[in-house]
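Final paragraph of the annual report: two paired records, presented back to back.
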Amino acid sequence: MKRYAKRVADSLLARKLQGLGAVLVQGAKWCGKTTTCEQVAKSVLYMGDPKKRKENLEMASIDVTSLLEGAKPRLIDEWQVAPVFWDAIRHAVDHADGPGQFILTGSVVPPKTEEKTHSGTGRIARLTMRPMTLWESGESSGTISLAELFSGTAPDSARAMGRELEEIAFLACRGGWPQAVLRKGDVALDLAFDYVDSVADEDISRVDDVRRDPARARRLLRSYARLQGSQANLKAIKLDMAGGGIDAPDEDTVASYRGALEKLFVVEDVPAWCPNLRCRTPIRTSGTRCFVDPSIAAASLGLGPGGLMSDLTTFGFFFETLAVRDLRVYAEALSGSVAHYRDASGLECDAVIHLRNGAYGLVEVKLGGDRLVAEGVETLLAFSGKIDTDAMKAPAFRMVLTAVGDYAYRRPADGVYVCPLSALCP
């Protein structure tokens, strides 16, 4: 597999290895966790290797410490198949000389079992990897840096890669899966469909050993795709899944299936942001439904680039998921996170990037064009005008993030940036 020169996770992993004895690298399968970790590991144990799986599991049950022997940092790939590793590594870290002893990778949230009795706090750091951003896959010029936007040193104008709308539709349907990035056309698009098949047919039941119906799993994925970008509750998802009322699941079932998808890092909702406001407008605190990558939504609905181009309203939601994916990765490079704002009046902000030092930036996501950009600017000005800057900082920047455009620029009249996603980088 091709080794990319730039993955944001590379520097994050190096930093975390300097801080604690072990690092858990988790995230959706096929997003490149093992490849990233192999670059820094001095020895590797592949628990998923079918040739040695049975032998390794037997050894883990007899003497797990023997599997920890090897040059450090030692990578334990797909460690969760033997949860006993968790406490064994925690114990080994307590008696090791220095940080950076172990790296664990996994495609599911760490299970709660009798063999895992400690949270790992103070011993095991966590790093979540996601599919590749446009900058990481070489499809963004990287001329507008999120770090520079926060520091106030971003240029007033910069060249973007100038993607056409059809190209963005393809990138949304292809996704940021490293194997797909290496391929072209329909071959690249196929991987997301294979991913959805794997999740629905096998992974959703294996994640916690609860048997789930593949057909129902596919219906939930389709409903989530139709409802992405909304704050739909479990009842709304249930009704959407029911369709004509045939085999309607109850809310507990919906919650179980959705929880499994979350453990697999397939869905990753955007949390609500609650700022200090000058008025008393009630703020909606429900998370916004979102996939870790827009290609999962496209494949769940059986859509390709042509399907998105024929329905620009739907395309807008897919592009928002694409933008949130990239913003999450870029924000984490700055020790930040992404949230969403919506109040009872209907005013919303698609993405609020918040850093540890209290700085934040406001982002509206639009496909592009004068009318949509103007709508985004109007929303940003209205929202930022409601924030009580006596109680909290003013936004570090306001930006309309677009799908198309040859240039990123800062508007002289109000200071709002208009930036194509193909110009952005950490």
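The closing record of the year follows.
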Amino acid sequence: MEGEPVSKSLVSVSLVMVLAMIGCGEERASLTVVNGLDDFVITRVYVYAEGSADRGSNLLRDALPPDSSVTVSLQDSLSSVLLFDEDGDSYLFTNVARGGNDSLAVTLDDISTTRFHYGDGPYALNVRNGLEGSCIYYLRISDPAEEEWTDYLQWNTLWPDEVLTAWVEEGSYRVVAEDQDGNAYTSRGISVDSTGASLTVEASDRDTSKIIATYGEGEAAVEIVSRLASWDVVELRFKPLGSPDWSENVIGIDTLDYMESVVIRLSPGTYRIRAMDEDSDSYLLDSLTVGIEEETCYIELNDILVE
């Protein structure tokens, strides 16, 4: 930009983009992105062809402070410009046309509120809430390389028909959505590559449980759900409060993965339930009072026993 000092980072970005344009043999069209986010730093900028599921690499070598700007190139007649601030909030501009030396001022009014973006990968996994009348509070996606889970909604809520775009690496993923009532919806084997992937969370995806053990007359069904995102539950035992003996491992040779559940039918009374994960860490649900109504309880990390 004429009349303004140019930082080394801007020179590097511009040089990379110019070389890319020369290699493609196309005319370069520039877009100046201005940070108008008051006190928030822009940490990432992506420019990619409109409708593409591959956003490429972050064009910023250094963070972009408020009231500063960076110039990037548009290689396509219509482009999407996606930015992230230091809090992880996203700002998406679509149908940005090549007009030559255009300017795009990003303000807090441009923050994405109904189309969320999260993640560091290059490829788009679009997840739509197809649950009529139910919001999605958590949207966890497995990492095939690390065997861990990430909540891609963070502090946001996905209302019916809203879409979250999870930017991930190439691979096969499992997606678990949880609604406001604690119901889980699991989709497995979602394959993502440079063409992206799309998924609609529907009522038919809801996880169902089966009765695996009965104690006494078994009037009440107690559903036990694992919330241990990175560890499988390999043992699950219960006993009436005051009894010296635990039951056998009611899940046998099976395991409970994240948000998977089992149901135990119990007679009314007060029980202790003990779980153990694959690392041999134990979790205690103490003094669970069971009546004649169905009950749901969760195995949480804060239930871990320190022995």
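The longest strand covers residues 171-179. This concludes the annual technical report; the extension proposal builds directly on these records.
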